[in-house]
Amino acid sequence: MRLELRDVRYVYAPGTPFEVEALRGVSLVVEPGEVLGIVGGTGSGKSTLVQHMNLLLTPTSGEVLVDGVDATTLKKSELRRRVGLVFQFPESALFAATVEEDVAFAPRQLALDEKEVRERVLESLRVLGAGELAARSPFALSGGEKRRAAIAGVLAMRPEILVLDEPTAGLDPATREDFLALILGLRNAGISVVLVSHDLDEVAEVADRVCALQEGRVLAVGTPAEVFYRDPSQAPATVRVASLLRESKPEIGAPVPFGETLDALRALRGA
Amino acid sequence: MKHPGEGTRVGGSLAVSCYRVSFSYPGSEQPALSDVSFELRPGEYVGVVGPNGGGKSTLVRLLNGLLKPDSGRVLVSGRDPSTEPFEVRKHLGILFQDPENGLVAPFVEDDVAFGLENLGVPRQEMRDRVARAIRAVGLEGYERREPGTLSGGEKQRVALAGLLAVEPEILVLDEPTSMLDASGRREVLEYLETLRAEKTVLHVTHHLEELVRSDRILVLNGGELVADKTPERLLSDADLLRENRLVLPVVQRLALELGLPPAKLRTPEELAEAILARTESGTRAG
User: Fold this and answer.
1) CATH pick for A3-216 out of 3.30.1490.20, 3.90.940.20, 3.40.50.300, 3.30.70.1120
2) ipTM above 0.95, yes or no
3) Rounded to two decimals, what is the model's pTM?
4) Nearest by CB: A172 against B153, B180, B245
């Protein structure tokens, strides 16, 4: 599916002294099958923005369109199945006695037969590299395992877009790398992923496009190179290194992911 | 050589000593820490890294007496935190991960004063200490701001000021930047940097790049202290890093791949400069 936000504004607590305009006219498209990175400082509107993607928040003005159709006319439950939202620290919502029971909670609301529910649960866990966790208690898992179990619950709804809000926050670096591989795996399975992250180095590795937010507005949107080379002071380490060399070595180009950057730097040495 | 912990019983010149400390959570088969020994000398800046579940948080809780070791002993400025937790907390302050949880008062200055209010510090001295602490973290002019209106980086600096006002000699930083965005992170690290040499610091983090300037780095994995090394040695030990699920920061990884010394090149600027110097000398091309 293609999800489009058109000139979305959102005001918290309108008409009170606490009124805050969190989104000030955001237009953005999530294309089918892409990884879209959303970056920006604290308070830039990232979390408010993603909650519009399945209408957990309704725009104060502006539109959300699903394949060109006004999302407010769709059944909310169906919209939320198609656009799965995983909040920050989702493991805090784990509750059941086993991982399998926990993951089954949401798909069970879909009036599927038990066999189908079980298939979906096991498939979701497998996709996330957590198949062996099914029978375990979610409370006896490591941080990374808990988070996989929590994401599996959303994945079992077979969403077309999976929105991950800071999925790697608080995880150790090696687990973080595993999660990036998972994100690419989901994309390769045809699911669009919206990755909200304040870790620019990780966005650099997986995003097909990047949207940079600032104070509720889109500061830039485009390929990672287009967005990050605009302002290298707010860019991943690879871009910061390359942009410092560009002035005297323009042949370095505009690499973003680690591998590309390393190749470009090696080519310089040979020059 | 003396065992760590030995000559520290009375008064002791060590800031922190842990001697053969073990701890298991009730009902858990695996010990959270097993037989861990190390020392912090006054003025040292020491990092702690290791995978989730490696024992980092348990160590922090043992240091301020929230947990009591099953065996072995912990001494902080010569005192046992499990028997004198309130005394120890005057000497050792902890900056936690999430600044939201720590801020309690309506205004920044009240928040900074909060820790002092329980210590019986006279009013005037309290004012002086609060003002000094606010200055130390660069928040002059923020005294009457409401903590809720601050950015993540600013909130974490308020929390840091609250610790500094108590004037502990030892600061424990428990993943102090993990909830912050890139600019908030840089901002907090900059103020932590100014505390070097003035304070003894134990800095727990997942980000090795925050520790490249530290004196030593402890690696905790599976409850065991598996390494206690200088950053130079740790960053150039690929096997040790891999075994402990540590990942070199991007700048250091690029340096290593290019055959440059990773521990000497800390920032993108330093790496870019080294690459330029090498391409221009032209002697080591290829």
Assistant:
1) 3.40.50.300
2) no
3) 0.82
4) B245
